[in-house]
Amino acid sequence: MARRHMAGVREAGDTRVALAEREPERGANNAFPSADASGIADRAARTTPAHLAETIPSNTFSGPILVPFRARLGDTDMLVHPLALGSSTFGWTLGDDDAFAVLDRFAGTGGDLVDTADSYASGRSESIIGSWMASRKTRDRMHVMTKVGRSVEHPGLSPEAIVAAVDGSLQRLGTDRIDVLFLHGEDPEVPLEESLGAIGALVAAGKVRAIGASDFSPERLIEARVLAANGLPRFQALTTRYSLMERSGFEGATELVAHAQGLAVLPYFPLANGFLGGGIRRRADVRHDARGERAAAHLGRRGTKVLAVLDGIARAHQVAPATVALAWLLAKPSVIAPVASASTPEQLDALIASASLELHRSELVELDRASH
To answer: For this UniProt entry, which residues form the secretion signal (predicted)?
Structure first.
């Protein structure tokens, strides 16, 4: 059986939980049951305990929650669940109540890594997450990632824009620190050393714990590492578009650089705008919106072949196709957590289940061949 390789993960036993098939239920003490799962062997020098208990200090989530395993984010001291919850829909297609329901389910199943940006819904995404953390008292157990550089109010990566954007994000999130701050794309108008210098001051002030790059080229990542060798902050993570349907943008030079630098890779659009969930098989299934049209772009011979392989593997493991698609990503050496979003709490079950699914080597090969 092929094993997934993720930074900072130790083998965690043989017990799996079919999270896609059941909903968390509270017991008499209002605690959610533990979610033990088979882990993954990796570099011995960067391992974490097989099971890590976390207590959520709130009336809604009281009692211990055991998660399958945690992965170390780059060279930081942050240990995170292998699924990041994307929040680009918060404040856009999801209002406060619906977003709260998704966040509740995510935290209730052990999730602790949330991805947002100051440009998502003009800051509403950050505000919703901040309100949720305040109401549930979950800030200290969540890892919040946000991005700066594309907001209308503070565009670009100049030192002034970065400082103002971070202060705005902190206010909306209702927190005193950002766990991972991403530079949201490259800014050719600003020398990278100026951007990193501004972030260095924010790190020193305790406003930012770690930094990452979003959609940076291999050349820019190499430049950043050279600058880090001279005392500027070092990138610890990389977000990039990557899935079974979109492989060429990451595999190759970017993947080699990310692996060499020990970057924690967090793929976004890991289900190819929902196409890999299996709900779109023909043009009649396509929703008439931007996301639907992006998913429809994968209809064709290659897309049909990938879905057929996903269907077969999903049946064999009694999980959803989306679970298999995310498990394929988690088998990649540098990937620690796909960034996936959900419109309803129920959709999260198939996403969370990917952390417990160990694909056979032959299944990985079959998926690789179908998606090339």
So the answer is: none
Alpha carbon distance 254, 259 (integer Å): 9
Q: Please state, in angstroms and rounded to a whole number, the distance separating the CA atoms of residues 276 and 271.
A: 5
Q: Mean per-residue pLDDT for 321-343?
A: 97
- Distance, in Å, from the CA atom of 255 to the CA atom of 334, rounded to the nearest integer, reads 8
Amino acid found at 23: E
At residue 2, the pLDDT reads 44
Encoded amino acid at 135, one letter: S
Has this prediction a pTM greater than 0.85? no
Domains contained in the chain, CATH given: 19-371 (3.20.20.100)
Two tokens at 284? 């009649």
**Residue 319 burial (C-beta neighbours within 10 Å; 0-12, 13-18, 19+):** buried
What b/e string do you get for 56-93 counting C-beta neighbours within 10 Å, with b at 16 or more?
beeeebeeebbbbbbbbbbbbebbbbbbbbbbbbbbee
Q: How far is CA 352 from the centre of its chain?
A: 11
Position 284 scores a pLDDT of 65
Map the chain to HEC letters: CCCCCCCCCCCCCCCCCCHHHCCCCCCCCCCCCCCCCCCCCCCHHHCCCCCEEEECCCCCCCCEEEECCCEECCCCCCEECCCEEECCCECCCECHHHHHHHHHHHHHCCCCEEECCCCHHHHHHHHHHHHHHHHHCCHHHCEEEEEECECCCCECCCHHHHHHHHHHHHHHHCCCCEEEEEEECCCCCCCHHHHHHHHHHHHHCCCEEEEEEECCCHHHHHHHHHHHHCCCCCEEEEEEECECCECCCCCCHHHHHHHHHCCEEEEECCCCCCHHHCCCCCHHHCCCCHHHHHHHCCCCHHHHHHHHHHHHHHHHHCCCHHHHHHHHHHCCCCECCCEECCCCHHHHHHHHHHHHCCCCHHHHHHHHHHHC
- Asked if residues 130 and 116 have their Cβ atoms less than 8 Å apart, the reply is no
